[in-house]
Structure formats: structure tokens, C-alpha cells
Amino acid sequence: xxxxxxxxxxxxxxxxxxxxxxxxxxxxxxxxxxxxxxxxxxxxxxxxxxxxxxxxxxxxxxxxxxxxxxxxxxxxxxxxxxxxxxxxxxxxxxxxxxxx
Length: 100
Hints:
With about 100 residues, the chain is an all-beta fold. The chain has strands at about 5-15, 15-20, 30-40, 50, 60-70, 80-90, 90-100.
């Protein structure tokens, strides 16, 4: 199973956060979220910007992204759940990997 077939839930807090929940993916990804904020500055935009869809609305800039992968009992050494957080701060990208 891949792509849309494995999406079991999509939640959106418009202008703030998007959460996808998955089940049965071959890569074991079970969760993905993106936190965004409105950029009304009118200045140069970072590469991780979602352009505004309507006239008069503001672009959305990604602040944080998180993905979670479930354990895979079929692979040796992959017996822990993995979570990755990615933060964008002042032009820097900070990644943090957590093993559960």
C-alpha cells in the first residue's frame, strides 16, 4: 500500500497546522505534521513557503515538520519507533531524531 491508499486521517487547523495519519505504508510512516505561520511581511520568502491561494491572503511559511515511523519487526536493528522533527529558525534548519 502506498500514497493516498494508506491515508486514514487528514486534519487541518487552517493557517496553523496540518496533520496526516497513515496506516499500512511500506515505509512504516504513521504520522506527518507541518506547523505554519502567516507571513505578512511582504519581503523575500524562504524556500519552504506555501503561496497564498487567494488575492489578499498571506503566504504560509513552515515553522516545524514532524514525521513518525512505526517499528518494523521484519528488519534487524529497526525495532524502535523513530520520530524526526525539523525546525526552521532564522534561516537555519534544525533536525532532531528521536528513538523510542
